[in-house]
Design brief:
10 helices
Amino acid sequence: MPPPMPDKEPTSPVCNDQFLANPHAAADKRTRVQKMFAAIAPSYDLNNRIHSLWQDQRWRRKAVKLAELKPTDLVVDVACGTGDLTIQFRDAVSDGLQCRPVIGVDFTLEMLPHAHRKSGIEDHKSPIFWLNADALSLPLPDACADVVSIAFGIRNVQDPAKALREFRRILRPGGRVIILEFSLPTNPLLRGLYNFYFRKVLPRTATWISRDKTGAYKYLPESVNTFIGRQQMMDMMRDAGFSRIEQFPLTFGICVCYRGWVS
């Protein structure tokens, strides 16, 4: 049984108050994020389902749809975590007559065994290859992929602009980048209600479920609140070399799917 929920979560050396003030400015953000995600890997899926009110899988289905997959597309899912989006891409691609592999990449090694178990050994036309690698330096050749996706991970990388340039590097002409990321509702009332839940309720309940001691679920709301806005994200995608950039707000704007194309 999990221990009783404390009145106040203790400060963690991984996720202290100074780091939470602006996690994206921390020089050691990568190391801290890696430690947090390694700690919460076993309960990651359960917390995702409960605290998104079972919307997270619907958001991923929307991302797959927006990728406009063709049967011969090679998909690279970056920051794949426990593999939810990677597997959805695999299943979507496997509906075609001729299929390519799907590649799931995550820099937190502890996530990948969970992803591998979930992907199973069923008779799919498309295999999944799991790679432990950093979004800033993908071990893949230039112009090798047709779709690069990242779900709830772009704000966790040390340098999002560099990651986008790396995605652009491995995409062929006609390729698509698909980014799912949390956002803040534009309606002030909804934003206030959302932040109350996000900052006051979720950190306690998610920490209780995961028994996390790193402060990962304190980091989550602050990493969203201090991250760049929607227009800045689109500008960053454009600067990385993408065109026809669009945003698709989901569930009152608490999640946004961005899509960009390679000319």
